[in-house]
Each structure stands twice: as structure tokens, then as C-alpha cells.
From TrEMBL, chains A, B:
<dbReference type="GO" id="GO:0008173">
    <property type="term" value="F:RNA methyltransferase activity"/>
</dbReference>
<dbReference type="InterPro" id="IPR029026">
    <property type="entry name" value="tRNA_m1G_MTases_N"/>
</dbReference>
<feature type="domain" description="RNA 2-O ribose methyltransferase substrate binding">
    <location>
        <begin position="30"/>
        <end position="99"/>
    </location>
</feature>
<dbReference type="GO" id="GO:0032259">
    <property type="term" value="P:methylation"/>
</dbReference>
<dbReference type="GO" id="GO:0005737">
    <property type="term" value="C:cytoplasm"/>
</dbReference>
<dbReference type="InterPro" id="IPR001537">
    <property type="entry name" value="SpoU_MeTrfase"/>
</dbReference>
<dbReference type="Pfam" id="PF00588">
    <property type="entry name" value="SpoU_methylase"/>
</dbReference>
<dbReference type="GO" id="GO:0003723">
    <property type="term" value="F:RNA binding"/>
</dbReference>
<comment type="similarity">
    <text>Belongs to the class IV-like SAM-binding methyltransferase superfamily. RNA methyltransferase TrmH family.</text>
</comment>
<dbReference type="InterPro" id="IPR029028">
    <property type="entry name" value="Alpha/beta_knot_MTases"/>
</dbReference>
<dbReference type="Pfam" id="PF22435">
    <property type="entry name" value="MRM3-like_sub_bind"/>
</dbReference>
<dbReference type="InterPro" id="IPR029064">
    <property type="entry name" value="Ribosomal_eL30-like_sf"/>
</dbReference>
<dbReference type="GO" id="GO:0006396">
    <property type="term" value="P:RNA processing"/>
</dbReference>
<dbReference type="InterPro" id="IPR051259">
    <property type="entry name" value="rRNA_Methyltransferase"/>
</dbReference>
<keyword id="KW-0489">Methyltransferase</keyword>
<dbReference type="InterPro" id="IPR004441">
    <property type="entry name" value="rRNA_MeTrfase_TrmH"/>
</dbReference>
<dbReference type="InterPro" id="IPR053888">
    <property type="entry name" value="MRM3-like_sub_bind"/>
</dbReference>
Length: 262, 262
């Protein structure tokens, strides 16, 4: 058991918590809490750190993970934890580098169903979109380079585990990538306040991609202009827009609904 | 201009920020930031407090509010603000006491469309549900007594103004209230993992209410048991549940979609 914060491994772990660039370099990310840890595919866990009191109460849980476990005193664990009330377990997880092929992988003979995020900034929104996307049968998520980091701890928590299963890819040039999708017969729909057609008047049973913009400003013009079709979610009252994760959910589940009916 | 934090009005305002019970007693709530302030119906603003530098830059904005404005030095404003980076404007707003009649008020000859929240705890979720509900044409929101406070500053912010327009009511006994709805020919649907029918197989064009449960535990049995119908949102992948605000959004917009088609 590690009892000191000056232990070399602990120093390294503390650095990993603080420096996202170091996590990028090592191709890993950190996951905290038992609920998220049990969602990690076994082959992707590099190492698990558990506090003394967590380990005492959760022997079976730790064995089930089939991963190397290092024990820390509660004080040392609190030192490396990212949260105010540490839950006593933290895992180092290998990243996967997805390709466009992974994002287009269809199950049950359905067509690709993509979500494209332009400059999304709120970690809770991004995590919720991952969680919703998995449930709605989305095959992959594309993100502009300036979206919030998927490996941000708050994003990871909000995905409720979908981050381990949903293929995603950051792209340098979103308009360019949208054109590539179109060449692959993926029809691209931009959720836009100026959209002419209501979202439920389009057919999403063939390959489709939904373009979702930034929380405050919506889609950038150069991205919206690439879309095959601007769609609008009809709104009543004085509401001017929807939360980005909610707008994405309404569209993804409309596609899911149509595909079940087919 | 008020220049000291020992000013009687400032002391009172600081108390109002800290003590929700005092806000309850006075029948008011506090709203911060220009974006939310401009959404407040003029007749409900009791008073506006603006920082010196905000007032200098936003003369027209303050005049447009048609409300009594008190100026504070920036330091005094920072003292009474609830946020880390104060935006320089804060309003005291009168609460409205809604009745069941307000929640059932239909527009455009449509039937009542209610959302019923059981022990919802996350302020961001509650605010997002208000915002989405307004856009989806919901007529009113019922909340169990143990839901998070609608007047929590984080809830208010996430509503993006819908809190000023969406009728809502906290109820002591949710199962009792659900029975009352049923007597009024409102069909009640519980979003439930054990639901038999997919949500898009039901008809929501007549009076309907969607029952949404707590983030971690879903609907309490005694509430779900009252529903006329348990519905399920079909999910793919390994997703076990949806975020509460997302589940509510999918249902509310399905009702909106059906009502537009009718």
C-alpha cells in the first residue's frame, strides 16, 4: 500500500490529473468512481487505484475488474482524486483511436447515423449527447477541433459509460469532412433556426448526419452552409432555442423512431 | 449610489441571496445577468440593482426595463452577487402562485399537456425541462414537494426565461394529484424501464401528462403505479437509461409532433 504523496507513482498520477497534455501524450484518460469504473471494457484498463477503505468494503468489485490494483491510504487517495468527495476508486484507461470506418459501422442492417458537433463547449452537454446517442442507435460522433475535450472528467461522468462504446473523431476541417460524408451518400441535416422543413418531415432511414452547433451561437455559417438540408424544430411559446443536448436528442430519437417503423 | 456594504438595503439583499426561506416568505426570487433580466415581464420586477460600470455601458437597457433601478459601486455589487464573475445586474422578481387551472390552460384549441416530476434533484435538469416544455407546447408542470426548488439560481438560469412563462405547481401528494388529473380525462403516462409500449405507439393528441422520475432511481413505485400506462423509450447499445431532461424532451416533442399532424 502506498502511504506517501511523495511516492513516484503518486507524483506521476497527480501530474496526469492536472495536465491534459500529458494524458494526450500517453494516450490514456482517468475515470473515477465505481459506477463508471465497472463500465470500462477490461482490456482497456491499464491500472486501478483504490483507497484502503474502498478496498476493504469492495473486495469482489475489485477482483471482477481483472486489472492490476494499487492500494493507497485514504489520505493519499484524496490527494490524487479530482473530486471533492473522493469515491475511493480511480482507473487509468487506454484511449482508442477511431477511424471514419468505425463511425460508419452499422448494426442490424441499418444505415450510418452520425452526429456532427460544431464548437460544443459545455461538458455536461457533450457527455449527455454521447449517452443519448448510444441509446438512439447513433453509429458515431464527429467533433470540430474546438469542441470541449471528450476526456474532460465531467464529460466522462455525464456519458454514463457511453464514452467507452461510442466511436468518435475530432476533425480539423469540419466543412471538408461533411463533404466527404456526402460523397458516401450520408445526407447531412443542420438543426437551424432558419430551417425551412420541420425535422419530422424528412426521411432519416437512409444514411444521415445531424449537425449541432454551439450552445450560444448555433452552427457556424460555413458549417451550416455545407448541409444538404436545414431543418427546424418547431417551437411554441416565446422559446427561442433549445439546449444543444435536447435538440440533438429530439433529432436522434426521431431518426430512431423512423428506423424502427421501417 | 450605494457605496457601502453596511447599507441597510444591501444587508437585506445579501440576506435574500443566502436564505431561501426569506425569499419564500417575501414571495420573491432573484435573477442575475442581463440576458435573464430582459426576459422578466415588466409588471413582475420589484427592483433592479445595477453596478456602476454596468449602468454606464447599458443606459438604454436599464430604461427599457421600466423598473426602479438602484446603483451600486462594483465592489458592493460583487458583494451581493451570487456568481463568481458578477454580470452587474440583479433583479428582485415577484413570484406567481399558479393554480391547476393555469396549468390546464390550452392555447390553439389543443388539449392540456402536462409534465409531472417526481423527486427531480438536478437544478440543470429542472431548468432544461422548463425550457424544453415551453418549446414543446406543454401547458403546465407539476412537481412533488421534494423536487429541487424552481427558484434555485441555477434552475432559473437553465430555464432561459421559461420560468417566467411556464405555469407550475408543487404538490404535497403526487399520487392523489395524478388521480385528480385522471378524473379530468388527462391520460397519464409513466416513462418506465418496465414500460410495455414504446412511447411512439401511444396517442397524445388528447389531454396527456408525462411522469418523469428521479435521476438515479426513476419514478417511485407509488407514483408509477398510478399511471394509466407505462411507456418505454426503446434504447440500443448498452445504454440503461436516459438523462431525465432528455427522456422528458423525447416524450414532450413526440406529443408536439402528433398534435401538429392532427
Amino acid at each position: 500500500m502506498i502511504t506517501s504523496t511523495s511516492n513516484a507513482q503518486i507524483k506521476e498520477l497527480a501530474k496526469l490529473q492536472k495536465k491534459s497534455r500529458l494524458r494526450d501524450e500517453k494516450g490514456i484518460f482517468l475515470v473515477e468512481g465505481p459506477r463508471m469504473t465497472e463500465e470500462i471494457p477490461a482490456e482497456r484498463i491499464e491500472k486501478v487505484y483504490a483507497s484502503e477503505s474502498f478496498a476493504k468494503k469492495n473486495k469482489e468489485f475489485l477482483e471482477k475488474l481483472q486489472a492490476p490494483v494499487e492500494l493507497l491510504t485514504d489520505t493519499v487517495f484524496a490527494y490524487v482524486s479530482d473530486t471533492k468527495t473522493p469515491q475511493g476508486i480511480l482507473a487509468i484507461v487506454k484511449r482508442l483511436n477511431y477511424t471514419m470506418n468505425d463511425l460508419m459501422q452499422v448494426k442490424n442492417q441499418k444505415a450510418p447515423h452520425l452526429v456532427v458537433l460544431d464548437n460544443l463547449q459545455d461538458p455536461g452537454n457533450l457527455g449527455t449527447i454521447f449517452r443519448t446517442a448510444e441509446a438512439a442507435g447513433v453509429t458515431g460522433i464527429l467533433l470540430s477541433k474546438d469542441c470541449v475535450d471528450v476526456y474532460n472528467p465531467k464529460v466522462i461522468r455525464s456519458t454514463m459509460g457511453a464514452v467507452f462504446r461510442m466511436p468518435f473523431l475530432y476533425v480539423e476541417d469540419l466543412p471538408e469532412k461533411i463533404k466527404e460524408l456526402q460523397k458516401e451518400s450520408i445526407k447531412t441535416y443542420a438543426a437551424h433556426l432558419r430551417g425551412e422543413n420541420a425535422y419530422d418531415e424528412e426521411d432519416y432511414t437512409t444514411g444521415c448526419a445531424f449537425l449541432i452547433g454551439n450552445e450560444g451561437n448555433g452552427l457556424r455559417d460555413e458549417v451550416a452552409d455545407c448541409a444538404d438540408c436545414l431543418i427546424r424544430i418547431p417551437m411554441e411559446g416565446e422559446a427561442e432555442s433549445l439546449n444543444a443536448a435536447v435538440a440533438a436528442a429530439v433529432l436522434m430519437f426521431e431518426a430512431g423512431r423512423q428506423r424502427r417503423k421501417k
